[in-house]
Amino acid sequence: MSSRSWFYASEGKQQGPFPEIRLRELIGRGAITADTLVWTEGMANWQRAAEIPGLFPGDLGPPLAPHSAGAVPSVGGHGDGPLSIDFGIWDFVWRSLVLLIGLIFIIPAPWAVIWYIKWLVPCVHVPGRPNLSFVGGAMTIVPWYFGALVLFVGVALTGIQLLNNLMFFVQIALYWLFVKWFVANLASNEQPLGLSFSGSFWAYLGWSVLAVISVITIIGWAWVYVASLRWVCRNIQGTRREVVFIGTGLEFLWRAIVAAIASSFIIPIPWMYRWMSRWLASQTVLAERGAQVNA
User: Fold this and answer.
1) Exposed, middle or buried, 17 (CB in 10 Å: 0-12/13-18/19+)?
2) What is the 3-state secondary structure (H, E, C) of the chain?
3) Distance (Å, rounded) from C-alpha 126 to C-alpha 194?
4) Is residue 53 very low, low, confident or very high in pLDDT (cuts 50, 70, 90)?
5) pLDDT the model gives residue 19
6) Is the pLDDT at 160 greater than 50, yes or no?
7) How far apart are the first and last CA of the chain?
8) CA distance 42 to 270
9) Long-range contacts: 247-255, Cβ < 8 Å, 24+?
10) What is the mean pLDDT of the chain?
11) In this predicted model, what pLDDT tens digit does every residue of 161-210 receive, in sequence order?
12) Phi, psi of 86 (to 5 degrees)
């Protein structure tokens, strides 16, 4: 019997670690099914339990052997492989409603946002990084948030159009600071990963302006969105692996149209959100820096 420890994903949460004998007990009880995502040290990516040779009863293949120490596995030619995300629909619904209420009442917004992020980030499964988490606190963004509120109210009271236009740049600056802070507070097992975002404010402003302009092209915004995602990924620093987004504008466009049409019926919104999230995660790949990745 292998001495490896295993993790599995259930309702968007990572469970474990469990010794392999315990994992097989969970399989026997039906707690882990063929479609459950599992991971153990040495695996390049989370996989369906049924894809692990020898793990399910009746499978005569040997258990998956971990890669040798120091080896970098390859998945589909993309180095360490794609990310994945999973979460329960009802968990998403009630948490999103709480977040919406917090935003409506304005004052609780920073705490509601951080609470939501701390739930959503662990739903993301990263190759080689079990127990992804977020360690940022609301008090860091409270001064930005309330400072911006005071500024927006003050500008609105003046009625000067030029100042109203300048608030667009203030809003973009706050988004840029949030991205830098978010990346810096990503962690594994509650230990910061030491990541940073190196994209400049002016480049971020340029992408934001381009996104606004692209709306007049009707469909061009999809390509701008994908290109900006690639730029964001390229500027995540602090790891030996490069974060690469390989999705295309056309793929994003048709999915966004389907999601928008389905969401107009209200009830499918959670399913559409999860569907889009899973696609975006699957198109976000970890690769060795300098490796050729085909988009």
Assistant:
1) middle
2) CCCCEEEEEECCEEEEEEEHHHHHHHHHHCCCCCCCEEEECCCCCCEEHHHCCCCCCCCCCCCCCCCCCCCCCCCCCCCCEECEECCCHHHHHHHHHHHHHHHHCCCCHHHHHHHHHHHHHHHEEECCECCEEECCCHHHHHHHHHHHHHHHHHHHHHCCHHHHHHHHHHHHHHHHHHHHHHHHCEEECCEECCCEECCCHHHHHHHHHHHHHHHHHCCHHHHHHHHHHHHHHHCEECCCEEEEECCCHHHHHHHHHHHHHHHCCCCCHHHHHHHHHHHHHHCEEEEECCCCCCC
3) 15
4) confident
5) 80
6) yes
7) 41
8) 33
9) 247/279, 247/280, 247/283, 247/295, 248/295, 249/222, 249/223, 249/224, 249/225, 250/222, 251/279, 251/283, 252/222, 252/225, 252/226, 253/219, 253/222, 253/223, 255/279
10) 85
11) 888 888 899 999 999 999 999 999 999 878 888 899 999 999 999 999 99
12) -155, 140
Residues contacting 269, CB < 8 A, separation 6+: 263
CA distances from 66 to 49, 63, 211 (A): 15, 9, 44
pTM for the structure as a whole: 0.74
Round to whole Å and give the CA distance between 7 and 41.
9
Question: Over the range 209-242, which residues count as b (16 or more CB within 10 Å of their CB) and which as e?
Answer: eeeeebeeeeebbbbbbbbbbbebbebbeeeebb
Query: Distance between CA 4 and CA 277 in Å, rounded?
Result: 30
User: Would the pLDDT of 243 be above 80?
Assistant: yes
* Owner of token pair 């369906």: 48
